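Problem 3 from the worked examples.
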Amino acid sequence: MNKSAYIKLVKGSAQTDVTLADVKELLVRYQHMTSLTGQQLDWDYQAAAFPYTIEEQEQDGVPYLVLKGTETHLYRGLVIGVSQEEDSGIPYVQLVLPEQATHGDLAKGNEFSKYIAKQLKGELHLFNGRIIYYNPRK
């Protein structure tokens, strides 16, 4: 697949900058929320809602998160990084579907990117090129 989704922190976003630690914290919070839902349902909802392990890696001095699928026949993985646009300096979070990604990874990537964008009140550029605005536009 090898596609990317972007969450840009434009004017009106909840934060003016984002770090990889911020993104990891949001993913851990997402896992916690789904585990609480699972307790209410008396079902291991977290395993279905977040079928990945989170690993921090670095390549050429650039840190990133790798979400590795726990059920490899359905979910293989996602890669998440943070950076800034060169021309405008706008910070963004990038979610990448690697070549071996499945349709399950695409669906989870959309789900996670929407959650992160909503929390950061950012501008979400989905894998298919469509844009969702989670910030108040003035």
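Problem 4, a separate protein:
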Amino acid sequence: MANADGTWDCVTKTPMGDQKSVFTIVTNGDTFSGTNEGPAGAMEVQDGKVDGNTLTWTMKMKMPPITMEATATVDGDTLNGSAKVGPFGTMQMAGTRRA
């Protein structure tokens, strides 16, 4: 299992351009919790699961009100994945763990 705990500086490629956020991850066995804070506010991780070095979770966006389904792979201090955001499609995301 990869160590995903920590604070990550992330960028998600959206139709509105690159969106920066700070993703906080706290693992507990095969589950995790956390928040993703960006320009639109903070979103809580829901149903966070850890499977080896792969994380899966959902988050509820407030505006527009959409559930985002995400998956990411942790490799050392990098995180790469994607988020399916309703009618907006799938968006690529990448992150670097803060020291």
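Solution to problem 4. The longest strand covers residues 17-28. The two ends are 20 Å apart (CA to CA).
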